[in-house]
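Blinded run. Sample ID left blank on purpose so nobody reads anything into the name before looking at the predicted structure. Input follows.
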Amino acid sequence: MTVTTHPLPADWRDLFALTKPRVMSLVIFTGLCGLLAAPERIHPVLAFTAILCIAMGAGGAAALNQWWEADLDAGMKRTAQRPLPQGRLDRTTARDFAGMLCAASVFLMGFAIGWLAAAILAVSIVYYALIYTVWLKPRTPQNIVIGGGAGAFPPLIGWVAATGHVSLMPVVLFAIIFFWTPPHFWALALFVKSDYAKVGIPMMPVVAGEKSTRRQILIYAVLLLPLSMVPWWLPGHHTGAIYGVSALILSSVFLALSVRVGLRERAGPDDAMKPEKQLFAYSVLYLFALFAALVVDRFIPV
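Blinded prediction complete.
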């Protein structure tokens, strides 16, 4: 399928849409939480700059993703209204905009904050735009599992921006998002699998079937519960009871919803897949709430 182009100049709203604002909001939030939860404080202006760089890098990577997948997006109902499939933006403009954002984010982070944070930001961009988008996504049903690392970098980057070094705590935060990603995304893939099948993307429900996908959602949810508690158990008093109790409750609900999905038989033709949609919606709330509890615990220790 060929994507048509529009002869008029791009509207700023179309460029903004390339950055996947709803996804970027979660990236920005977890990056900010990583920065605020770190044991060291940095100047507010530098903190703002670090989060701006994370946002620019994430937005640029998302724009590269849409530039590369414009033809695929045109073939899927869920993405057909994006600027490139609709012809409201030409691909060259999208590519140049994405490249500018990515390069600016890394260099600004390096000069203003530090080159370790900039290097990790660069790795996250390459991971998402190249390793996941170009290599993994069209080739393996494990694309979300391996590619999940792309969305797990922000709290690590935020922590390093504040402290200047990598320690065990931000690695654990990285791991939490890494293990959260498969059940989050597979829940979505279960009720939009026809879109992926239509364009030939080997998502887990398309290749391995619904039963296998549901089983794996449950497995990751089971692993996520104890992993989410690790920040409370780590030596060094990084978190206290506020985070620990919140993580236990939030992850228990996540597991309960995953059990409903994981033990469910194949949905019938008239089934609205409510358990899958509920899990997907809750999974977004879960990550926001979990990282919010991390920050609240940092400033109101119990």
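Unblinding after everyone has recorded impressions. Residues 69 and 214 are 27 Å apart (CA to CA).
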